[in-house]
Amino acid sequence: MLCAHRAVTSRAVASGLVLRQGVRCLGSMIPTLQRDADIAASRALAQLPPKVASFVERSAILCKPKAIHVCDGSEAEMKKFKAEMCRTGMLEKLDKYHECYLARTDPNDVARVEKKTFVVTEKKTDAVPEPQPGVEGMLGNWMSKEKLLEIVRDRFLGCMAGRTMYVIPFSMGPIGSPISKIGIQLTDSPYVVASMKIMTRMGGAVLGTLDEEDFVRCLHSVGCPLPSMHHYRETWPCNPDQTIIAQVPDSKEIISFGSGYGGNSLLGKKCFALRIGSALAYQEGWLAEHMLILGITNPAGVKRYIAAAFPSACGKTNLAMMTPSLPGYKVECVGDDIAWMKFDDEGVLRAINPENGFFGVAPGTSTKTNPVAMKTIASNTLFTNVAKTDDGGVFWEGLEEETDFSYDITSWRNVHPWRKETGGLAAHPNSRFCTPASQCPTMDPSWEDPRGVPISAILFGSRRPEGVPMVYESLDWKHGVMIGAAMRSEATAAAEYSKKEIMHDPFAMRPFFGYNFGLYLKHWLSMDEPNRKLPKIFHVNWFRKGSDGKFLWPGFGQNIRVLDWIFRRLDGKDIAMNSPIGLLPKPGTIDLVGIAHLNIKIDELFHIPKDFWQKEVRDVKCYLEGQLGNDLPEEIRNELEKLQQRVENMQ
Ligand code: GTP
Ligand code: SPV
Ligand code: MN
């Protein structure tokens, strides 16, 4: 491990990556303005470690809040905040359940905004690859430090006027674990405070373990000083025209302005655990990935762990919480969105979930598709942009069969009574539940083990309506890395794309890379070292459609049939056969016992049309060569060439 670490670090330096160890430019994006005696004397600052106090003070002088509140993370504090939000109309209590609330956002602030998300580094190529001439780079947006400084001075000056600045100490990973990392988020949104309380380990206890030289500084504002000067939904302040989400790996800073929603504002999640996380992981020799982690126990009682990277809204939460339809199998959840993984001294890849809650897609979740999630969210849950029933319950598309329609419904856009025939969607397609992981009845006993759980397989998967089989296995590690690089998926409502186009989304990380994707690929390839037990890599697709436009596979709990095949492959069973794209299940080796009545078209699910794959390889090659130019590793180029040859030779 040590020696791999050194190799990675020296390569990082050689490649000119700006994450120089030992060089710190702390707080560099927050300008030093004239001291404010009132703020300096604030009692809030006195309780903080000096470097945290200094970060808060500088930020307060810039943002000019009316008060500063250091969150202790207690239940009493949360109760107070929620009551206050109910009073102002930001939250509505859902009387049908215990301690559940609903927030409705401004209709212009409903998802992550990828086009306004930037990685800020000294050199552009530290953050994003240099595309071939004439090609527009699609693998992240770069901004210079100078430009960000200008934006911070411009947008943040006085941006919290009339509002409280909340100081949120939080830990990604269990408090005190050697793998965990600490952040301090400043925000003027009480909704963000309540959400961070669920999603992270948050509060005063974190300060006790804080290393003053090593915490991530996160500054967030909804960008609406009071009295209000512009238009937004009164109960959901935001500033969509001025929104920016910037991460500065060099100084471990995150600066977010204008949005109160999801990954834009809960800065521990995508900004920290993935963008800053992946940059640190590169530097330190580990992996920060957009992956669920699950434990699976087979009928013989053997247990393994699997990590899976699917793009946003492509099924991670549902797979991590699945209720297996095959008798004797048990699936347990370690995490549903993010994995931090590192090879240990025995050469085993170990993974932790840095989060403490789920921020899950609501529509499609039901007792039929995901009973575990339904149990998890039955109390202490913050819902956003779902619809509400007149008896104080929630409603969204997918809950029709378990909803009493004698009560009227208020849609996410506040239309009451909402009617299906005329009202459009009741819930926004990216509406979410924010709920504590500890409430999930299938949490894995080891989910908080600081050593992490041992990973035996990595799955890549996405929404592919055409051409891509339900499961195939990579030939080896290099081929597997190429499969990750070649991922594409139908766009979803999790970001700002409105059409259902098929987009490239390497490793399900396209919106989340914290450094140059060419280096990321080399980093993945470098994991293949002697004495390591590399996980096997698979690709899965639950979303293939037939000629009638309907899904060919029932999905959800039935996906265990695919996990069962994968499990048996991990045991070395002879159930796979060669194909041009990788190893496919031999006929009859996917267990379909008990679902004959569903008339699954299994041949269609595994068909690999030559013309489709000829085009697929061409598109992927063109994309990766165009996007990465000289940064495309030779190994990946070779893998693509070999795939192309095999497809050309197909009958
Ligand atoms: P993010 O939280 O955005 O990262 O999404 P995710 O990857 O966790 O996706 P999630 O499990 O929330 O699923 C997104 C949508 O896909 C929901 O509407 C689900 O109901 C639906 N879905 C999940 N798994 C399946 C499946 O196996 N088959 C089908 N047809 N739909 C699925
Ligand atoms: C995703 O988009 O992948 C999510 C939701 O998990 S958000 O927190 O908004 O990023
Ligand atoms: Mn996600």
Gross morphology is: globular
Distance between the termini: 45 Å
How much β-strand is present in the residues?
15-25%
Cofactors, ions, other ligands: guanosine-5'-triphosphate, sulfopyruvate, manganese (II) ion
Biggest sheet, open or closed, and with what strands and sense? 9 strands, mixed
User: Measured on Cα atoms, how large is the radius of gyration?
Assistant: 24 Å
Mean model confidence by pLDDT = 94
Please tally the β strands and state the result: 30
Classify the oligomer. single chain
Helicity, as a percent range: 25-40%
Ranges where pLDDT stays below 50 over 5 or more residues in a row are 1-26
Q: Structural class, from helix and strand content?
A: alpha/beta
Q: What count of helical segments does DSSP give?
A: 19
Cofactor: Mn(2+)
EC number: 4.1.1.32
Domain Phosphoenolpyruvate carboxykinase GTP-utilising N-terminal: 55-281
Subunit structure: Monomer.
Which key phrases capture this entry?
nine-stranded mixed sheet; 651 residues; 20% strand; alpha/beta; binds manganese (II) ion; decarboxylase; single chain; 30 strands; PEP_carboxykinase_N; phosphoenolpyruvate carboxykinase (GTP) activity; metal-binding; binds guanosine-5'-triphosphate
Briefly say what this structure is.
The protein is of the alpha/beta class. It is globular.
Describe the structure.
With 651 residues, the protein is of the alpha/beta class. 28% of the residues lie in helices and 20% in strands. Residues 312, 337 line the site of manganese (II) ion. One of its GO terms (molecular function) is phosphoenolpyruvate carboxykinase (GTP) activity. Residues 286-646 form the Phosphoenolpyruvate carboxykinase C-terminal P-loop domain. Keywords: Decarboxylase, GTP-binding, Lyase, Manganese, Metal-binding, Nucleotide-binding. Residues 55-281 form the Phosphoenolpyruvate carboxykinase GTP-utilising N-terminal domain.
